[in-house]
Design brief:
Blueprint: E1 2-8, E2 11-17, H1 27-31, E3 35-39, H2 42-61, E4 69-75, E5 85-86, E6 91-98, E7 107-112, E8 116-122, E9 125-130, E10 133-136, E11 146-151
Antiparallel strand pairs: 1-2, 1-3, 4-11, 5-8, 6-7, 6-11, 8-9, 9-10
């Protein structure tokens, strides 16, 4: 037994058919450029569900787990703005933390070698910047310190 899923213009059609491995679909289906995927038999799907659902849930929870980080640049409320820094490694995961919540990052980004990050003045405001993306720092006037931290490998 084989489950066949056919996607036509965003609509998914599924059918169960008795066909051996390598069973052919109709000529019309093949010539119309329809996306087709053959899935394992339903008995195998129940086994896959037992393992897939916990795995998907685990992956959904992982973004909240940051792991070990080390500070690379800090901006305090009365501190002068430091120069922009350049990434020297092939790929770096950076997190921007505020002193009001040291566990949850305000912003996170993966930077490649030679990309810049830090803090810049725009008019009368100071903003964080990474790869040219400006990140607003609304609480800086209230004595909040911001820190760029890099994930340790």
């Amino acid at each position: 037994m084989e489950v066949v899923v056919v996607v036509v213009r965003g609509i998914m059609w599924a059918s169960i058919r008795n066909a051996g491995v390598g069973g052919n679909l109709t000529e019309a289906t093949r010539h119309r450029g329809v996306g087709v995927a053959a899935l394992p038999a339903p008995a195998t799907l129940s086994i896959m569900r037992r393992f897939a659902i916990p795995a998907v849930l685990l992956l959904a929870l992982l973004p909240g787990c940051i792991g070990a980080t080390r500070p690379v640049m800090t901006l305090g409320p009365e501190q002068p703005i430091p120069d922009l820094a350049t990434v020297g490694e092939p790929a770096v995961q950076l997190y921007l933390f505020a002193s009001t919540d040291e566990k949850t990052p305000v912003y996170s980004i993966t930077l490649k070698k030679y990309e810049k990050y830090g803090f810049v003045r725009t008019g009368t405001r100071v903003e964080a910047v990474a790869r040219g993306i400006l990140i607003s720092l609304p609480d800086r006037s209230e004595g909040v310190t911001y820190t760029w931290r890099v994930a340790e490998k």
